[in-house]
Amino acid sequence: MAIFFSAILALACLVLPGSLVASELPDLGDSSASVLSAEDDYRLGQAFMRNLRQNVEIIEDPELNAYINALGYRLLSAANTQLPFSFFIINEPNINAFAGPGGHIGLHSGLILAAESEGELAAVMAHEIAHVTQRHLARAFQKASSAQVQTFAAILAAILLGSPELSTAMIATATAGNIQQQLNFTRSHEREADRVGIDILVNSGFNPNHMPGFFYRLQEAYRYMESNLPELLRTHPVTPNRIADSQNRARQYPPTKEKLSTGLSFMQAKLRSYDKTNQALNIKRLETKQADSQLLSTAEQYEYALHQLTTGKLEAAEALTNKLLENSKESALYIALKARVEIAMQQPKSAVSRLQQALLLFPNHPQLSTLYAQALIDSGKAEIAADKIRSLIQQQQEFVLPSYYQLLAKAESAAKRDSNAHMALADYYYMIGQTRTAIEQLETALKQSDNTPYQTERIKAQLNSYKQELLENEPQSDTTQQLSIDRQQQ
After folding, report:
1. Do the Cβ atoms of 171 and 158 come closer than 8 Å?
2. Fewer CB atoms < 10 Å away: N or C end of the chain?
């Protein structure tokens, strides 16, 4: 299934070309909306994300998620769009990014680690935003031949249905005939996407040269490695003409005084703490630098502390964290790290006190809020923890992570509110694409003795909705036939 979904993403990168230049921007009320309406795009996007979570590892760290979405929305403020967007990180070393339906933009961790500045990362994100704002999914349907439309529609259906029956071989056979034509189409529109992306970049306060600069650096690094190109260069073909075109456009803007941020280096440090494969190498790199009497930057100290924490060296992690806090007592990043250390050292009451004060400065901060809930659970205050997570979910809305529902279920279970716990787990499993398991959780919730009449009706309504979705989107198996019988009996 993972290979199958990779093929879908690869085809999507071919079928979804770049954006049009500003002078050719389509009216969002044009005929493309009749091919794929905003509502259809949203529904497709939700299904896309549920399927994606089943097949790749999405990093659900609240701090990383908040950072990447804050950067994304800084760019969106200059994109003149009202379309919904969300940004997420896939734990994958390849250098790549893609724009899915519904405004969901994925960034590989390898891309973020490869960026030498926040401006380079913003340049790639601006490029992907341009794919979405110009509704290229709908426009691809308009421009494709009837055969291409059928192929693309079948693949989109496969995403919605989650059907493994459509094999990689079928997709390859259906698309092999026009690969070169699709690549040519992609190359021309990638240049146009660069132009729109540069406009967004400049209007967001970034230097326009980050766009050609990043692609040029990648091209030079992989000049003699055609067989090992990063995915970004495969799905977004870079040619000398394309780089020259974007360089010329960048020169048309006056010098830009950037709004500098140190956030990227700390997020890269955190990403490296998730890289278990290279963890020993990353630790050795930092230890070697220290042994050579070289001072570690604050971001490197932060990374070192994270590695100590994740490898169970809690006293060393505590010492490093205390040193960071001495110089920046009101840093949400360091406070969160300190709280993680305290929770790991089984000092939840200290963590509760620390986080309670921090949340006065940073209300509804995602990382601080989730750590606060965990510390409350460990301190025997599960009901308060559940209330805190519910508040965070309500406040975050489109940026809610599935892990929030996992934590909510843990809090509700500790508070002996079994029905609420199973309902939270149902939300979690539905978000990660496991609708059948979500249905099982709701059926279990329906049997609990702590249900109120209102809650019973709410569970029934949600159960009916999930069953209906399975009936509509899955082939008629014995299970779906039974679901149909169950619905008729309700």
Report:
1. no
2. C
Q: Which position has the higher pLDDT, 362 or 101? A: 362
**H-run or E-run covering 74:** helix 62-76
Q: Quick one: tokens of 476?
A: 């008629």
What is the spatial distance between Cα 11 and Cα 25, in angstroms, rounded to a whole number? Answer: 24
To which residue do tokens 């921090």 refer? 358
Cα-Cα end-to-end distance for the chain: 34
- Per-residue DSSP letter, 89: E
Which range among 34-43, 212-221, 327-336, 377-386 shows the weakest confidence by mean pLDDT? 34-43
CA dist 428 and 438 (Å) reads 8
Whole-prediction pTM: 0.82
Measuring CA to CA, how many Å separate 74 from each of 83, 85, 117, 231, 256? 14, 12, 16, 26, 16
Residues identified as active-site: 128, 194
With a CB cutoff of 8 Å and minimum separation 6, the contacts of 467 are 439, 483, 486, 487
Burial class (CB in 10 A: 0-12, 13-18, 19+), 53: middle
Amino acid sitting at position 4: F
Longest CA–CA separation in the chain, Å: 74
Taking the CA atoms of residue 396, residue 402, residue 407 and residue 410 in that order, the dihedral angle to the nearest 10 degrees is 140
Residue 271, pLDDT above cutoff 60: yes
Let me know the angle formed at the C-alpha of 162 by 158 and 166, rounded to the nearest 5 degrees.
Answer: 45
